[in-house]
Specification:
Layout: H1 12-17, E1 26-29, E2 33-37, E3 47-51, H2 63-84, E4 88-92, E5 107-113, H3 145-152, H4 156-168
Antiparallel strand pairs: 1-2, 2-3, 3-5, 4-5
Helix pairs in contact: 2-4
Length: 171
């Protein structure tokens, strides 16, 4: 059995890691993973831990990649606590289009949650779900997603400055 992945050619994360997209400001880098700023700052300081190798889902990770992802997420979470003093840290990851995955490259979100957030509880795409489950074969309603993404898209200089601040507080 396989999970349907979103189609994106070229992969935006691969493009960013290759240096062809300035929005992917690097915070930290290891043998298997890279921690970057999420170009869409649904919360100020939102980061992504991505695999250096192009893989689609959790199911595709090697044991080494899985361990490296959690270690990198913990490392950046400690820095986010120091940098932004959030109320909490949200971590999540989507596997397949029916879970809300929009980029076909494994990425693990590490998000500092702040007062006044318009997210509610959980990942932002859950707000679009009418219920916890849907009828098989029906995709998530993306109407309004473009407007929301425009609202939260940070400019390159802002992303670089946030990455610099977070990097400065890495343990």
């Amino acid at each position: 059995m396989s999970i349907e992945l979103p189609v994106q050619v070229p992969c935006e994360i691969c493009e960013g890691l290759a240096g062809r997209d300035d929005r992917y400001a690097v915070i930290d880098e290891g043998e298997h993973v890279v921690t970057i700023m999420n170009a869409w700052q649904y919360e100020i300081g939102q980061c992504l831990v991505v695999t250096g190798r192009h893989v689609g889902t959790l199911l595709d990770l090697s044991a080494e990649e899985g361990s490296a992802i959690i270690a990198a997420a913990r490392r950046v979470a400690h820095s986010l606590l120091e940098t932004y003093r959030p109320l909490g840290i949200l971590t999540f990851q989507n596997n397949g289009v029916y879970s809300g995955q929009t980029v076909p490259h494994y990425h693990f979100h590490v998000v500092p949650r702040q007062p006044g957030s318009d997210w509610g509880i959980g990942p932002p795409q859950l707000a679009a779900f009418e219920g916890a489950g849907r009828i098989a074969g029906i995709r998530r309603d993306e109407s309004g997603a473009d407007q929301r993404r425009k609202r939260v898209q940070a400019d390159v200089e802002t992303l670089r400055e946030r990455a610099r601040r977070i990097r400065g507080n890495l343990p």
